[in-house]
Amino acid sequence: MPLTVRLKVIFIVFLYLSLFVLSVLLSVYLNPVLIAIPVILLVLGIYLVFIFYPKFDPTGFTLYRLKKGKNNIAFTFDDGPDPFVTPVVLDILKEYSVKATFFCLGFKAEKYPDIIRRIREEGHILANHGYSHTKLHNKSYGFILSEIERSEKVLEPLSLLNGKRLFRSPHGFKNFTLMKILKRNNYILAGWTRGIWDSDGSEPEILLRRALHYLEDGVIFLFHDGRDIEGRGMNIAEFLRKFIPLVREKGYNITDNLSG
Ligand SMILES: [Zn+2]
Question: Which CATH architecture has domain 62-254?
Answer without folding.
Answer: Alpha-Beta Barrel (3.20)
